[in-house]
Amino acid sequence: MDNTKWLDDDEQHLWRSYLDATRLLFQQLDKQLVRDAGISFADYEILVLLSEAPEQRMRMRDLADASTTTRSGITRAVTRMEKAGWVRRAGCETDKRGAWAELGDGGAAKLAEAGPGHVDAVRKNMFDVLTPHDITAMTRAFEAMRERMHEDRRDR
Amino acid sequence: MDNTKWLDDDEQHLWRSYLDATRLLFQQLDKQLVRDAGISFADYEILVLLSEAPEQRMRMRDLADASTTTRSGITRAVTRMEKAGWVRRAGCETDKRGAWAELGDGGAAKLAEAGPGHVDAVRKNMFDVLTPHDITAMTRAFEAMRERMHEDRRDR
DNA sequence: CGCATCTAGTTGCTTAGTCAACTACCTGGT
DNA sequence: ACCAGGTAGTTGACTAAGCAACTAGATGCG
Q: Strand C: which positions are within 7 A of a protein CB?
């Protein structure tokens, strides 16, 4: 017996559009950033997270969680960005295992350089074709998905 | 002067939810497939494309476009899947440069094995929390984004 | 207190995927 | 018919990111 509840036509249609549009979007954003500002989308996002954090710094672990990657991924990303002069590492006083990643001047400058072009691209490829009504529905939907998935997220 | 039209709060909120939910979803789908069926999400999608194509085969170039990756990426993916016995390569009669990638028996079996668990995961993490109304709005939105981006997609 | 267990971060190893360059082939214009 | 320029697929070199294993430090329980 086949207990599987396959996707119906509407669901299938959404699924394909979502996958395709999203991959296309992420690729275009990455390309735009690399081309115009010499920074990858992934690295850019890390800088944004740091820039918004209290004292512009975050623990490695929290960075990994917030950016939906792994601890080792963050180690490597921070090492890379440290070499580029965008972030600094600082030891943690209260937890000697720990390390802070701090936004450096170079990183702030890079953010300022990359930000406008990036936002333009996000707008052009996404928000320009969305109605306020779409925005409401999508926000609700993605929030719900996020919540659902955060429930059973296990360490990696 | 700053001509940049930054995202307002609602836009920002959607943007973050979308990024976060999507990355989480893609990761969970990949993990589920690897764990339960020994196939990556990327490879699974290629098999799906082939299975739906006329005669269950596609030209390499078309596969690359359809899966939003690059020609070289598809070359390597097909090589890998050929070794696994999931697809076959066949020369193209009418265009001697060309090559077909064909779904093999192993691939069809792998699809049958992986499909149900995958659909369950997609349902659980996405469609279960969407209303029919969400589905309509999102489909319209992603279709529009897709169209917009397909316009100025250049070869890679 | 002392030990078992957990957590933070890093690293070795491996894999997937990109770009650029290359070969082989196709196509359109003259 | 020929050739200039384009296209299909592959490959070499490289980068990014994941897992598993490891070290060092924290935590809790008897």
A: 7-12, 16-21, 24-27
Q: A129, B137: Cβ pair inside 8 Å?
A: no
pLDDT at position A2 is: 72
As given in the structure block, the two tokens for residue A30 are: 């990455």
Q: Which residues of A124-141 are buried (b: 16+ CB within 10 A; e: fewer)?
A: ebbbebbeeebbebbbbb
Residues sharing a CB contact under 8 Å with residue A43, sequence separation 6 or more, in sequence order: A77, A80, A81, A86
Kindly determine whether residue B138 and residue A138, on different chains, have CB atoms separated by under 8 Å.
yes
According to the model, what pLDDT value does residue B153 have? 56
Give the tokens for residue A40. Answer: 């990858």
Per-residue CA distances from B20 to A38, A85, B14, B24, B140 (Å): 24, 27, 10, 6, 21
Total of domains in chain B: 1
**Record: contact A21-B149, CB cut-off 8 A:** yes
Is B152 domain-assigned? no
Is B68 within a domain? yes
Q: What is the DSSP letter of B129?
A: G
Give the C-alpha separation, A68 to B28, whole Å: 11
What pTM does this model have? 0.92
Question: Could you tell me if residue A95 is inside a domain?
Answer: yes
| Per-residue model confidence (pLDDT) at position B1 | 65
The pLDDT of residue A151 is above 90: no
**Cβ-Cβ contacts under 8 Å, A129 against chain B:** 141, 144-145, 148
Q: Which residue has the tokens 């499909």?
A: B115
Residue A1 CA and nucleotide D16 C1' are separated, in Å, by: 43
